[in-house]
């Protein structure tokens, strides 16, 4: 019922979503921690820039990525010179687009969970002899893990659905950058592509639903059983 | 001299100022809620910095002009009013957070049957005794006790009071305890300071 070609699209989508989530995760956590815990000048501006992909038309985000990662662009030229690689028209480029679009959602979820960690527990850890790093590693990080996981799953789901920035940045190359939404878009353009649209859409909905349920369960876990006595 | 304290701090609209020096035993800060007693303990533990003054305990300067040791280097065994056990760690891991888990050293607390429990399953008295054990196992040079008996019923109060007396008399650690209860202050304090 589902053709090998369609399975390949699903596999590519999962790979793009997973890689973009894993690469974005540490960056999102660092930004979330910065926003939750550090007071610095220009914080509002940094916060706004992180959230830009959420509100700017995705086409614009894709175009900016294209400018940055083109062979003549600042990041693209650097990648070419140092590593001899280009991300244009490659699945790695699709992962970058997904990561940028997912970043604000991941930062939001993680920031909330870091802010929810009771600072008094960190104070208690410090009086027990833990330095800042040990306190972070043994108290702050484990207590914000449910939020980190929820943010990661949400980011993965967002990456799976990425369309506008991806098609602008790395185009719609079957087998390379054609993820689920791009394949659905292509099938819609073809006469007789209806059945494929139905199948791929159903897969998209199921994957997204599973991710959202997982994210919600993790977020609930974050609020349960971790109250301070 | 165990405590040599002279601190001033403005928090919001409240000025907190306290100067005292005490010898061995337990010093009790006694006074109504809102007088800044907990803030004084937080300053001594290094969780907040005084605006001015000095903090010396057992002859070592913890805070003074140009000196402000971080909490982890002060050697305070701080028992908070709200136990503050780490919710993601079992009792054993809470007890062992600040130093090796030596049950013999804290046998008098009667908490050895609680080791596998999660903090959320403990009663108030149990949580308080675990918090005292955790503070003692971090090998502190002195103890700070913030209302260690509040919200406990009579039987639990007696358990925790005995534990504090044991620490005062047998372990001979300098203790600074905050309370608003005159009877507690009388029983524990070798010196009582009104605030």
From TrEMBL, chain A:
Keywords: Cell inner membrane, Cell membrane, Membrane, Molybdenum, Transmembrane, Transmembrane helix, Transport. Its main location: membrane. The chain crosses the membrane at residues 12-36, 48-69, 81-103, 135-157, 196-219. It is a multi-pass membrane protein. Residues 10-218 form the ABC transmembrane type-1 domain. NCBIfam families: modB_ABC, PRK09421.1. This is Molybdenum transport system permease. It comes from Sphingomonas immobilis.
From TrEMBL, chain B:
GO terms for molecular function: ATP binding. It comes from the Bacteria. Residues 2-195 form the ABC transporter domain. The keyword 4Fe-4S does not apply. Keywords: ATP-binding, Nucleotide-binding. PROSITE patterns: ABC_TRANSPORTER_1 (PS00211), ABC_TRANSPORTER_2 (PS50893). Pfam families: ABC_tran. The keyword ATP-binding applies. This is ATP-binding cassette domain-containing protein. It comes from Sphingomonas immobilis.
